[in-house]
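Key idea: predict the complex, not the pieces.
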Amino acid sequence: EVRLLEAGGTLVQRGGSLRLSCAASGFAFSSYAMSWVRQVPGKGLEWLSAIRGSGRSTYYADSAQGRFTISRDNSRNTLFLQIRSLRAEDTAVYYCAKSVSADADDAVDYWGLGTLVTVTA
Amino acid sequence: IVLTQSPGTLSLSPGERATLSCRASQSLTSSRYLAWYQQKPGQSPRLLIYGASTRATGIPARFRGSGSGTDFTLTISRLEPEDYAVYYCQQYDSSPQGGFTFGPGTKVDIK
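Result:
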């Protein structure tokens, strides 16, 4: 059974940094691209970033370019998202998601339950 | 690429047909780069359709995706009580002008 468990969401001050993690199990982690998607409570989905299975190629939304860094540790079956210079508008639930294939440019077929990041003034 | 979904809300009775539209601001380089997701309150999204028309594992046949270029459609042939949810389309064309954007969503609620 595919499982994705995000962690690291917390209350953080504006301007601070945070690293989210996503522990994956139930599939060959290094064979699949992974993504981060966020959702402001009550609002729509916003794709942030994706990374190929090898970790060698990464993709970012314009809104995430420069402050967000996606990475993965295939030896630990874990996906990461580093966020710097946090802003109030970064307050959201952050989901990790598994791609249908090794290609980052593919749909995502499994999602975690999400982790809530709240940025305070 | 910006995705526009219509209508914003669709009010239908169980058993009725639902037709949801997703329009891209420019033509996708391939229809394989379009997916549909369903999200119910308090839950994570669920993949319904990828490659514009391929149903994901376990998705009932009443869900059908179609379209190409800039215009895509999700059709639910006969609404079941569990189908009332928000539906998002997503394009994942990684060409420089692409990105992996989501549409704003269509809410299907009970009439």
